[in-house]
Amino acid sequence: MTADDASTLAEALRDRAPSVPADWRVDVCARTESTNSDLLERRDGVPCALFALAQTGGRGRRGRSWTALPGDSLTFSLRVRFDGRADRLSGLSLAVGVALAEALTAQGFDGLALKWPNDLMRATGQGAGKLGGVLIELASTPTHTDAVIGVGINLAPPPPGHYALPTAALFDGTQPDWLRIAAAALDALAAALPVFAAQGFSAFAERWNRLNLHAGYAVEVEGEMRALGGLCVGADADGALLLDCGDRIERVLAGDVSLRAPVRN
Ligand code: BTN
Q: Best substitution site from 64, 135, 138, 256 to test ligand 1's pocket, by max atoms within 8 Å of Cβ?
């Protein structure tokens, strides 16, 4: 891709994403190691979106990887500045998930759901598979916090065995429409982030809970230190996961959720 192609694509994204403020930079590159790493290095305070057609060393949550070949995956990061310290941003990744799931549903894709804390899921013939994920990295000062919000979404199905968990894709057997999905995702986040800045996750909690893949199911949450079982109640106003453990409600702040019991009918 030439520099002209990249800027034409960036302009097309901007045209199709009217919620993007005029002062945001929108960049597209043919290939990079990780869009999150690239934006973590930019410290000029200018809000920026960086899309990579191919990503060779993309990072996921808990040390996992998220690579992408051209056409297979939508990979991008946004760098935005919020007032205050990082603790004001609890639930940001869940709010991002809500905005993305709703935007994809509005684009006509069915079966979208969210898995706590920040997996985008989609119904497949055999249950739900992971469609995408969000990785947020923060750099804080006493007055503001820069958030790099990284998003990876499978446009085409990943090669079998590429990821440990079942996967899903937006386009299975049809040509992925990168520009349409990239613009819809960018527009949705540009609209959602000011709402999050003003109201926090409480503005998104009800919507997150409507999309919660595991609502009412028996689940296990595997944290760094221990595993916890219970009925999945949902996310609270700060984005913590509430688990009904029978004799008490536990508030979980980090971990991986999986189903513990067979799916009910
Ligand atoms: C996860 O589910 O583990 C999160 C995956 C996030 C991957 C995206 S792809 C764009 C951005 N750049 C990265 O290196 N990671 C995120």
A: 135
CA distances from 229 to 114, 118, 168, 220, 253 (A): 19, 19, 26, 4, 14
Q: How does pLDDT run across 35-44, given as a tens digit for each residue?
A: 999 999 987 8
Find the distance separating the first CA and the last CA of the chain, reported in whole Å. Answer: 50
- For residue 166, say if its preceding peptide bond is cis, omega within 30 degrees of 0: no
Nearest to 114 by CA among 99, 125, 124: 99
**Is the Cβ atom of 97 under 6 angstroms away from ligand 1?**
no
Place of tokens 């869009």: 35
Cα of 26 to ligand 1 centre, how many Å? 18
Task: Give the pairing of strands 218-222 and 227-235.
Answer: antiparallel
Please, are residues 104 and 81 in contact by the beta-carbon 8 Å criterion?
no
Give the residue among 99, 194, 112 at the shortest CA–CA distance from 154. 112
Q: What is the pLDDT of residues 166-192, one digit of tens each?
A: 899 999 888 999 999 999 999 999 999
